[in-house]
């Protein structure tokens, strides 16, 4: 009798917005000449420059996707975030994970998002999770404990890669360099009831000389308190996570305005972003967004210092903004990491904790980057992250999540530094923390005039914009 011909099994990489990560992974699956990987791409309609959503395209229907899987003997589907699952459910009311399981197809999610920023995200992350499938999630120090709270299993954690270069030499800037800040205002987030008040209340937990570190530390400590010390049910913990993360996001936005408002050196600041930035800072605003291509060109020109105003818990868990600067070998400074292991301590020289330190470093950046200890530490970090990224890629290629454990351990070293600091802070400030949480849950007002920032011009403008928005509604 004729022998049965074994059909080749395939991996379907269902990409989102043509990500470099999955395009590279597709190429490596097929590097030996065998067509192991099949590639499809869809657009979520998200415009990364304007940070707005437009029309999604390229989504296969459940019938088309099922037919494709059967015809091509697909045994594994890899995609980013939950876009594929959510869009199919939204448009066709089909829970596609159940179909994957029925077809004996493993579905692997690579998370690029934090999931606490809305009331639904954390629950959605758990709802669209099947513990029999592998899942990779970024930011272990921020996400892992919440994943555990939600009963999620089989989740591994992976790095956001910095640069493909083996060694980076940061260029010196010309003497009359300018300052580049490209960001989004998030002003509309302050239109929500009591958000501005609650952010100003939270900032009162900080002092001016250390405000950019203390605010971030305060936020992560309160999350730690909710998880480990607060006696309440799971629903309340998830609600507090959302409320605290929203305060943190809007608080970082307000501190960004503080940075812009308090720059006092004799250098030109170019501010790019949405038009509400123009309402707050018309003398700096460039009347437009800055595309990524334009930004890379500016950063490589040796004419601009890249000013960063992003939250950062630890350097192994950075945001793409920092990666952008390193890829361009461009000098940058930013908010301090909440914790740093000893080998990363030299990076405090490219951090600013308060306004006085900010202005000093904005004006002396070439001296900072001429320090070999700073550059060597950045290169060491980049090399570590490159190794972690390679292990992550190998874990995907071989479907062995354990190969990615080095990154997890690197991040845990920072968590072990943070936990005793958080416990000490809670011991000293528990009454104040509980009062803040009670104010938050019970929606008690906070008098803006009690804030030391009440007279800042940008605060008054935000209040005026908020009042105008509510009057229109």
Report strand order across the widest sheet: 2-1-5-6-7-8
> What is the count of helical runs?
17
Unreliable residue stretches: none
Taken as a percent bin, the fraction of beta residues is 5-15%
The whole-angstrom Rg is 24 Å
Q: Tell the overall outline.
A: globular
Number of strands: 12
What about the largest sheet?
6 strands, parallel
Mean pLDDT: 90
Structural class: alpha/beta
The level of helicity is 40-55%
For the termini, the CA-CA separation is 77 Å
Element pattern in H and E: EHEEEHEHHEHEHEEHHHEHHEHEHHHHH
What are its keywords?
473 residues; six-stranded parallel sheet; four-stranded parallel sheet; 11% strand; globular
3D architecture notes:
- Helix 6 (140-149) links the parallel strand 7 (135-137) and strand 8 (155-157).
- The longest helix is centred in the last third of the chain and has 38 residues, at 405-442.
- The protein is α/β, with parallel strands linked by helices and 473 residues long.
- The mean pLDDT is 90.
- The strands form three sheets. A six-stranded parallel sheet has the order 2-1-5-6-7-8, with helices on both faces. It has a four-stranded parallel sheet with strand order 10-9-11-12, with helices on one face.
- The protein contains 17 helices and twelve strands.
- The protein has helices at residues 20-29, 62-71, 83-92, 96-102, 121-127, 140-149, 195-203, 211-228, 234-262, 275-280, 292-300, 320-327, 355-363, 365-369, 372-398, 405-442, 457-472; strands spanning 10-16, 37-42, 46-47, 52-53, 74-80, 106-111, 135-137, 155-157, 178-182, 269-272, 304-307, 332-333.
